Amino acid sequence: MTYDSREDTNAHIERVDDLLIEVSSELSRRASQHDASKVRGPEKPIFDRVTPLLKGMTYGSDEYKASLAEMKPALDHHYAYNQHHPEHHEDGVSDMTLIDLIEMLADWKAAGERHADGSMQRSLEINEKRFGIPEPLIRLLRQTADALGWL
């Protein structure tokens, strides 16, 4: 009698399906809770004041960086409660999970769309330097953004 791999392969397929559904569920949970801290104190009053001004600024510009200083109390709170930001972690992106990184990448894409001159490519270039993202990881982020049609 010869071995038929079908049963083992189907069991493997079902297990991978279950595990990917776990990942998908975690991403869905995060999607529903993303940046919820921005809509209540102490962040909301500061974001109410500064967000309209950010739309006219170029991401990474000196003017943009100055606005971050003005937003420091809100940002400190925001980073403390939102693990998709490198600032949340002691060692930045090196301490993040793949799930954190996916949410971060989506956040960068959406944030870039708020600026008239926003660009995912530019965000990746700026944030590579800003957060000291190692070359293999920035390549992974760029390839993921490209595969999703975000570049």
Report on the structure:
The structure is a single chain. The protein has seven helices and no strands. It is mainly alpha-helical and 151 residues long. It has one domain (34-147). Helix 2 (43-54) crosses helix 4 (72-81) and helix 6 (120-130) packs antiparallel against helix 7 (135-147).
The chain-level mean pLDDT equals: 95
Largest sheet: none
Shape: elongated
> Looking at the chains present, what oligomeric state does this protein adopt?
single chain
Number of domains: 1
Q: Number of helix segments?
A: 7
Number of strands: 0
Q: Considering DSSP H and I runs of 4 or more, what fraction of the residues is helical?
A: 55-70%
Helix and strand topology:
Blueprint: H1 6-33, H2 43-54, H3 62-70, H4 72-81, H5 98-113, H6 120-130, H7 135-147
Helix pairs in contact: 2-4, 6-7
Structure in a nutshell:
The chain has 151 residues and is mainly alpha-helical.
Any descriptors?
about 150 residues; mainly alpha; 7 helices
